[in-house]
Amino acid sequence: MAAAAAAAVGGPQPPQPELPAAGLALDKAATAAHLKAALSRPDNRAGAEELQALLERVLSAERPLAVAADGEEAAAGGGGPGAAEEEALEWCKCLLAGGGGYEEFCAAVRAYDPAALCGLVWTANFVAYRCRTCGISPCMSLCAECFHQGDHTGHDFNMFRSQAGGACDCGDSNVMRESGFCRRHQIKSSSNIPCVPKDLLMMSEFVLPRFIFCLIQYLREGYNEPAADVPSEKDLSKVLQLLEPQISFLEDLTKMGGAMRSVLTQVLTNQQNYKDLTSGLGENTCAKKSHEKYLIALKSSGLTYPEDKLVYGIQEPSAGTSTLAVQGFAGATGTLGQLDSSDEEDQDGSQGLGKRKRVKLSSSTKDQSIMDVLKHKSFLEELLFWTIKYEFPQKMVTFLLNMLPDQEYKVAFTKTFVQHYAFIMKTLKKSHESDTMSNRIVHISVQLFSNEELARQVTEECQLLDIMVTVLLYMMESCLIKSELQDEENSLHVVVNCGEALLKNNTYWPLVSDFINILSHQSVAKKFLEDHGLLVTWMNFVSFFQGMNLNKRELNEHVEFESQTYYAAFAAELEACAQPMWGLLSHCKVRETQEYTRNVVRYCLEALQDWFDAINFVDEPAPNQVTFHLPLHRYYAMFLSKAVKCQELDLDSVLPDQEMLMKLMIHPLQIQASLAEIHSNMWVRNGLQIKGQAMTYVQSHFCNSMIDPDIYLLQVCASRLDPDYFISSVFERFKVVDLLTMASQHQNTVLDAEHERSMLEGALTFLVILLSLRLHLGMSDDEILRAEMVAQLCMNDRTHSSLLDLIPENPNPKSGIIPGSYSFESVLSAVADFKAPVFEPGGSMQQGMYTPKAEVWDQEFDPVMVILRTVYRRDVQSAMDRYTAFLKQNGKFPGNPWPPYKKRTPLHPSYKGLMRLLHCKTLHIVLFTLLYKILMDHQNLSEHVLCMVLYLIELGLENSADEESDEEASVCGPERCHDSWFPGSNLVANMRHFINYVRVRVPETAPEVKRDSPASTSSDSLGSLQSSRRPKVLQRENSGTAQVFSLVAERRKKFQEIINRSSNEANQVVRPKTSSKWSAPGSAPQLTTAILEIKESILSLLIKLHHKLSGKQNSYYPPWLDDIEILIQPEIPKYSHGDGITAVERILLKAALQSRMNKRIIEEICRKVTPPVPPRKVTAAEKKTLDKEERRQKARERQQKLLAEFASRQKSFMETAMDVDSPENDIPMEITTAEPQVSEAVYDCVICGQSGPSSEDRPTGLVVLLQASSVLGQCRDNTEPKKLPITEEEQIYPWDTCAAVHDVRLSLLQRYFKDSSCLLAVSIGWEGGVYVQTCGHTLHIDCHKSYMESLRNDQVLQGFSVDKGEFTCPLCRQFANSVLPCYPGSNMENNLWQRPSNKSLQDLIKEVEELQGRPGAFPVSISSETNLSKEMESVMKDIKNTTQKKYRDYSKTPGSPDNDFLFMYSVARTNLELELIHRGGNLCSGGASTAGKRSCLNQLFHVLALHMRLYSIDSEFNPWGKLTQLEEMNSQLGNEEQQPEVPILYHDVTSLLLIQILMMPQPLRKDHFTCIVKVLFALLYTQALVALSVKCNEEDRSAWKHTGALKKNTCDAEKSYKVLLSFVISELSKGKLYHEEGAQECAMVSPIAWSSESMEKYLQDFCLPFLRITSLLQHHLFGEDLPSCQEEEEFSVLSSCLGLLPTFYQTEHPFISASCLDWPVPAFDIIAQWCSEINSFTERHAEQGKALLIQESRWKLPHLLQLPENYNTIFQYYHRKTCSVCTKVPKDPAVCLVCGTFVCLKGLCCKQQSYCECVLHSQNCGAGTGIFLLVNASVIIIIRGHRFCLWGSVYLDAHGEEDRDLRRGKPLYICKERYKVLEQQWISHTFDHINKRWGPHYNGL
To answer: Is the pLDDT of residue 1643 over 70?
Structure first.
C-alpha cells in the first residue's frame, strides 16, 4: 500500500493533482512513514528525490495564496487560499512526525530539551519583573513564573509592564546572578539529557529548508514597492495575515525545546541550502520570478547586490559576516552619496520650514559600504531582510527571538542583525509607524547587546561601533540646518533642527539606546576610547547638537507662535549626547585609564576650537540670544572632573591656553545670566516655553548633565583666569555694571530699571554658587548624595519615590549609584524621619513622607544647594519658611533668620585658584560700593543683596591667604596707595583701607552735582566704578590726577594682553567695537562728573550697618574687650543661625581674629561716636512709589479684615443653621414658661437670608440628597466576613444576603396569596431603597428655583448635572439634588400631643380606627392646590425617580396603587434601618441620632403620610381589624376560588407599624402611637412563639405543651410565655404544620436543647429589631432622647421607653419579655384565630408554610469584601483572568468590592444598550453606586449614578505610598485604615460629600 501511495504521489511519473483530497488525507501518515523508512537507508538518494518532489508539489499547492495576495485573481485559488495552506501545513506536520501522530512527536522531541534557559518571549504590555539585586545587566528581566519560583525575598525588585516586549533571562548567567535563577533553571541540565536519536529529527532536516524557502518566496512575492504617495501598509498586513499560520507553525517548533531549535539553526544558517534553493537559476520559472522580485526589492532599498565581486573578504564562510575597510574615517562629516537626496529634497517643501533650508553635507570620504551594500548568504539573513522590509511584524520578531536560547543561532543572528543595522535604521526613518517599529527593534537588540561576550565579539568581528556611529551620523545629517548663533551671515556651523519629525518623535531612540547599551560593556567602551577615528567622528556628531534650538529674545511684540521644540532639544541632548558620555565615564574610574581621558579631552577641545571658528566667535557673545545646549563643553567638563577625581591626572596638563579658557567660559556664563534674565521676566515676550527651558535645565533628570557641568567648567575657568577679568565679565554679562556706582542715580544703558534689582541679585547669587559649590571640587559620592537629599527634603517633605526621582542619579545605570541602592537607603535614614501616613477622617488621605531630622536643620541646611536645585522659585521660600519655623520652635532664634552660613568641604588642591576671586580688587570695589549704597538707602537694593555681600565677605575671610604680617602693612601706609582704590588684593588688609573721595559720573539732575567739590580732590579723588564707554571725555575731565577704574575697560585690556601674548596678529583679531550699540537713548540727561566724599572703609561701613540694622546708635561693641578669650580660642561654629546683625558681628570677629591691625581699627571706629545717618531726601518719584506700596499694604490689610469678619459671620451662621428643626432643644424651655406660647418653627433661608416660618404659600425646604441604596441588602446573616476570591475555587454566592432572602419571601407569598395583600405584608427597598440625607440647611423653595436657573446659565464646568436637578448647597457646598418641603406647624404641638391621657387601651384602639377611616384629615386640604402641596408632590416624584423601576414595581399588575403604597412606606423603613446601621446596628449608645440635627425624617414622614392618605385602604383589608377584633369563623370559607389574603402571622410587623402610623392624620398623638405599638407587639410576640415552636423537635414540643397547659388558668396566664407557647403548639397541632417530620425537618431543627434562658433569649432577639426601629421612629416623631444602656439590657430599656413595660415590672430581676404584653382582646381567642389562618394554608402547603414562619431577624452589619494582605495575590489572579461575558482578557479588568464580580471596565465587548459593563453592574449591585478595584492600577473607582471619581488606593508600599497604575511596581500591602474609611463612606452614603473630583462617565468610563 505504502509503495502504491508513494508511486501515486511522487514517483518518477508527473504528480497527479487530480487525486481527491480525502484520499490524500488517509495516506499522509502512510506516505510519511514510507518516506522516513526510505530515507533511513544508507543509500537514501531515491528517498530524498521522492521527498523533494512531494514537497515541491505540496508546497507549491499554496501558490494561489500569492496571487490572492496580489489581489489580481483572488478567486483563482478554488477552495480559497485558506484550504490549500491548511493542507500544506498538515502535510508538513505528518512528514515531520514520520508517520506517527504529530502530538506524540512533539512530546518526544520535548523530552530531549536541555532547558537551561527560559527564554520566554513576550510582547508589549506583558507583566514582567526586574530584580536589581540579581541582575548583572540593567536590562535583565524575568517572567512572572520564573520570578515567583525563585527566591527574591528582601531584594530590590519591581514589577513592570513591558513597553517594547522582552524575553526572560532566567538561566542566563551572562545577564543575571545564578542565585536568582528559579527552581526549573537552576539545574545545569545538559549532562543528564540523553542524546537525540538520529531518526527522530531526520525528516525535519529534509522538510524544513523547503518550508522556510517557501515562506521566503511568499514574502518576496507579496512585497510590492510602495508607490511614492500611497503608503502600502494595507497590502503588507494582508500578506502577513495570510502567512500567520506558517509563522505560527515555526514558532510552535521553537517551543519544542533545544533539540528542534538546533535543527532550525542548522537550516537557517546553512549557506549551501540557501544557494541551491534561491539562486533563481535552473528551469523553474516561479523561482526565477521570485529571485527577480528579491533583486528589485534590494535595489529599491538603495542597496546594491554585489554580484560576487567579493567586496567583502569573507572571513568565516559559516556565519557569512563582512568586514569593511574603514577608509579615512577621520574626516567623516560626510554623507551617503546622494542616495536619498531626491526624496529628501521633495520633502523639504512640505516641511514648511520657511527660509531655513536643510543643509546637505557631502563628502565621499565615508565608507559607502556600511550604508548600502548587503549580500545574503543564508535563509536567516534573507528572513531578517524581509522582516525589516515588512516593518517588523510581531509574529516574525517573536519567532526570531524564540530561537535565541540556541547559542549557535544567537551568534549567527547577532551578526546578521549587525550586518543589517544600517538598513534597519533607514527603514525606520521612512516608516509611518515609527513608534511600533522602534519598540520591536529594541525588543530584538536589547536581547543581543546586553550580553557582554556577544557584544565584544561583534564589535571585533563586524565593526559594530563603526556601524553604529556612522548610522547615527547618517540619521542626524538628514535634518541639519545652518546655525544662527553669533554670526548669522557667516556661520559655517550646522545644527540639528529640533522641529523635524526625527527629533520631535524621538525616532533616533532605538539607535541611541543600543549605543548606550553596548557602551556599558567595558571591553566595548575601551575599544571606542582607544579608536581615535571613532572619537573624532563622535565629537563631530556631538557638535551637531552644540547650539541647537537657539532662543532670541523678543524685544517688541509677543512672539505669535510658541514653539515647543525645546522638549525635543533637551531629550536629544540627554539621550544622544549625555547618556553615552556617562556610559564612557563609568569606565574611566581608575588611574590606568588616564590615556582614554586624554584622548577624549584632546578631540573635544579640537571640536570646540572648530566650533568657535565656525561660528566666527571672537570675544563678545551676540546680545539677546541664548542656547541651553553645549554638549561639547559638557563632555569636556565631565572628563576633566573625572580625571582629577578618579584618575589623579594633573589638571593643568589637560587645560588649554588662556585664550581658549576665556572663550570656553563665555557661553556657559551667558546661560547663567540668561537664567537670571528669564526669572526677572525679561524674556516674557518669548512666551511660557522659555521659562520651561530654564526649568528643564535645572530639573533633576537634566541637572547633572547640564547645569552642573556648566558651573564646574566656569569654576575651572575662574581658577585659572585672571580674577579681575572674571569678576568684571560676570557683572557685565549680568548687565549690572552701570548700577555699581557710588552715585545715588545712574543710567543703565542695557537694562530697564525694574529689572536691575533682580539681575543684581542674580549676579551675586551666581558668584555665591560658583564659590561655594563643591559638587565636582572635592566632595565624595556619599557627601554629594547626602547634600542632594538634604536640599530636596528642606524644600518639602517628600515621599520615598519622589525623592528617588528628584535626586539626580548618574544617568548611566552601571555607575553604581543605583536608586534604591544601599547607600541611598542608609543616607536617607541618616538625614530624615519617616512620617507614617496619617488619616484625617473626611479629609485627604496622606502618603508616607520623609521629613528632615532636627539636626539636619540645625547643621546641614544649605541654601546654596537649595537655590541650585529648585525648579520653582517658590521652593526656595518654602525651604526658608520651614527653616524659620524650626528655629522658632526649638527656641534657637526668635526673629526672621537669614540663610545660614555653612562651612564648605575643603577644595581639591587642583582648584585652589578659585579662591583668588575673593581676593581681587574688582570684587572688593563691588562689595564696598554695594555696602555704601545699602547704607545710604539707594534704590534697587534689597536685604537679599546685603545677605549675599556679607556672605561673600565672610567666604573671603574664611579662605584668606596666609596671615599677612602686620608690620609690612604699617609700612605701606595711606601715603603709598594713591594709584588705585585698594593697596593690595588681600581682603583682610583691604577691609581696613579708608577711601576718602570718589569721582563719579552722574546725570545732571542728580543731587550730588549741586555740591561744590572739596578743595583736596587731588590725589585721593580716585576713579569711579561707573563704567563709561567714552574714555576720551573722561581723560579730559580727569586732568591726569585721578585714574578711573572701569570694569569693562579692565576686562578688554586683559583680553587684549592675552591675545597679544598668543598671536602677533592682534590687530586683526580685535574688532573695533561699534559704540552705537551702547550709546544711551537720546532723551537721557547728560552725564557730568561729581566728586563724592566717602571717608569709609569696609570695616566702618559694616559697623554702621550694624547700627542701621539694629536701629540703635552705637549698638556694636567689640566682644573681645570684655572677654579676651574670644580671640585666643575662637569658637566659630561650622554652621551659624541668625540674621543680618549676627552676620555682621561674625564677620567683624573673624576680621579681628585674622589681623591685629583690623582689631585696632575696629576699636577705634567704635570709639568715635558715629554720627547719625543723614535722613534721605525723598524725591517726588520715589514718594510716588512709596505711596503706592503703602496703599497696597493698606488694601491688603483691609482685605484680611473683611475676610476674617466674613469667616466669623459664616461660622456663627453655620452654628445657628444647624440648630434648625431640633425640637429637643426647645422642649425644656417651653415647659418652664407658665402659660404655653404657641411658637412656630422658624427657618433661615440660606439664599435670601430671611428668617420666618414655612407657610403654605411660601414653603421652606430642607436641602436634601436623594440616592438609591443597596447597602441594606448587603447585610449577611453570618459573622464570618466574605473574602475577595483569589482562586478559581473561591466564589461568592449572593443567596445569603438580606436582599436575596427578602426577595424569596415576597415571591413565595405572591405565589399563594392575593397580590394586594402580599404587598402590605412586607417591605421592599433592601435593594434600591431611597435614602434621604440633608446638610441641615433650609431655603425658600422659590429662592431655590431661581438658584437653579442661575446654575443652569452658568457655563462653568461643574461636577454635577443641573438638568438632573443636582446642585450644591449654597452655604456649605454639600452635594444635593432635591428640596424637602418643611411642614407648617409649631414646635409646641409636640407638647400638646405628648400629655399622657388616661384612656384605656380599648378606647384608644377605637380612636385609631376612626382616625384611619377619616379621609384627608389634614390641616392642608388636598383639593386646594397650594404651593406646599405642589412641592410635596414634586418631591415625591423625585423620590420615585431616584431609584430604578425594577426596585419600585413588585406588583403582578403593573401600576397598581398598592405598589406605590408599598414603595412609600418602604422609603420610611429604608431610612430608619439605615440610621440603625449607622449607629452600629443597635441603640445602646442612645443620645440624639448620629446625624443629629441633620436628620430629615420628620419632614420626610409628613410628605409620605400626605401621599399615603391618598390611597385609603378599604376598611375590610385594613389589618388593624384583624389585630384588634375577633371575627366570626365562617367568613373564611366563603370564597375558595379566590386567592386568600396573607395570614396575619406572615406579616412583617415593622411594615404594619409604618402603615398604621402613616395612615394616621399628622401630627400624631403620643398615646395613639403607644397604642399601635402595643397591639403590634402582641402579634410580634406570637410570631416569635410560633417560630420557636417550629424550630424545636417533637419531644420538646409535647413537653412544653403539657407544662404550659397546667398554668393556663392562673391570673397571669396571658403574660407567661410558657402558657402562650403551649397554647400555640396545641392550636397549630390541629393543622399539618408539624406533620411532615421528614428529611427536610432536620435542617430546620436546631440541635441544641432549649433551656428556659435560651428560649427567653430567642424571643428577645426575635423582637429586638422591631423595638429598635420603633424607638427610632418615636425619637424622630416626638423628639425624645434615646436612653443609653448595656447590650444585655437593651430589650428592657427600649420596651420601657416605648411604654410597653408598666413601671412596676421594671424592677423584676430575671427580666421576662412576656411581661411587656398588653392584649387588646383575650389572648387565647385571638391567637386561636391567627393560628387557624395558618392551619388552613398548611393543609395544602405545609413546607412553604413552615418556611414562611421562620424569619431570620438577626442581620449582621454590611461589610465590603475582605481583601488579601498583599496586592500581588489579587493582581496575579485577576490581570490574566478572562471575562465571563466575552471570554477575552479585559484591557482594564476591575473587581466589585461589594460582591466580588469581575467586570471589564471600559471594554466595548460587554456593552449592553450602550452601557458599559461596570456601569450596568453598579446599577444592579448597588442601585447606582459601584465600588471597583482597578486591577491594573491598584486604584479604587467609585461610580455614583452618572458620575464617577477616583477614590485612591487602599494598598500602599513599604514607604506608605500609593502606586497608581503600578508604575513603580513595588510590593503593595493593604492599609486597613484606608479600607475602613472607604467602607465607612459606603455605609454612610457620603461618597458625594467627601470626594471632590467627580466627572461624568457617559455610561462608558
So the answer is: no
Q: How would DSSP label each residue in 94-121? A: HHHHTTS-HHHHHHHHHTT--------E
pLDDT at residue 254 tops 60? yes
Q: Is 1802 in contact with 1900 (CB distance < 8 Å)?
A: yes
Strands (E), 347-490: 480-482
Give the span between the Cα atoms of 1038 and 1032, in whole angstroms. Answer: 10
Interior angle at CA 331, CA 330 and CA 337, nearest 5: 125
Instruction: Classify residue 1276 by its DSSP letter.
Output: B
Mean pLDDT of 485-505: 86
How much of the chain is helix, strand and coil, in % rounded to 5? 55, 5, 40
Nearest to 952 by CA among 761, 759, 667, 720: 761
What would the pLDDT profile of 1114-1129 be if each residue is shown by its tens digit? 788 888 877 777 766 6
The pLDDT assigned to 411 comes to 93
For residues 1728 and 1733, give the distance between their C-alpha atoms in angstroms, rounded to a whole number.
9
**Mean pLDDT value across residues 707-712:** 96
Q: Cα–Cα distance between 150 and 1788 in angstroms, integer? A: 29
Q: Which residue(s) pair with 1386 in the sheet?
A: 1240
What is d(CA 676, CA 685) in angstroms, rounded to the nearest whole number? 15
Cβ(337)–Cβ(364) below 8 Å: yes
Answer whether residue 123 shows pLDDT above 70: yes
C-alpha cell at 470: 556612522
Residue 1603 grid cell = 407544662
Is pTM beyond 0.85 here? no
Q: Tell me if the bond preceding 1259 is cis, omega within 30° of 0.
A: no
Confidence label for 525 from pLDDT (cuts 50, 70 and 90): very high
Contacts of 507 (CB under 8 A, 6+ apart): 428, 429, 434, 438, 475, 501
CA 1063, distance to chain mean position in Å, is 59
**Cβ neighbours of 1381 (radius 10 Å):** 25
Burial 223-245 (b: 16+ CB within 10 A, else e): bbeeeeeeeeeebbebbbebbee
Which pLDDT score, from 0 to 100, does residue 715 have?
96
pLDDT band at 1613 (very low <50, low <70, confident <90, very high): confident
What pLDDT shows up at residue 1678?
A: 83
User: Residue 142 — very low, low, confident or very high, per pLDDT cuts 50/70/90?
Assistant: very high
Distance CA 970, CA 1849 (A): 75
Cell 444576603, residue located: 1297
Residue 790 has pLDDT above 90, yes or no: yes
Confidence bin at 1419 (pLDDT 50/70/90): very low
In three-state form (DSSP H/G/I as H, E/B as E, the rest C), the secondary structure along 1005-1054 is CCHHHHCCCCCCCCCCCECCCCCCCCHHHHHHHHCCCCCCCCHHHHHHHH
Contacts of 963 (CB under 8 A, 6+ apart): 1154, 1155
The pLDDT value recorded for residue 194 is 67
**Residue 154 backbone class (left: φ over 0; alpha: ψ -120 to 50; beta: rest):** left
**Whole-angstrom distance, CA of residue 1543 vs CA of residue 1162:** 110
Q: How far apart are CA 800 and CA 1662, in angstroms?
A: 54
For the chain, how many residues are written?
A: 1901
Name the residue among 1811, 1783, 1789 with its Cα closest to residue 1801. Answer: 1789
Determine how many CB atoms are found less than 10 A away from the CB of residue 252: 15
Which pLDDT band holds residue 1355 (cuts at 50, 70, 90)?
low
Residue 867's alpha-carbon distances to 626, 878, 1178, in angstroms, are: 21, 11, 35
Q: What is the mean pLDDT of the chain?
A: 78
Nearest-5° angle of CA 388, CA 394, CA 399? 85
Cell of 1098: 569696609
pLDDT at residue 1466 is higher than 70: yes
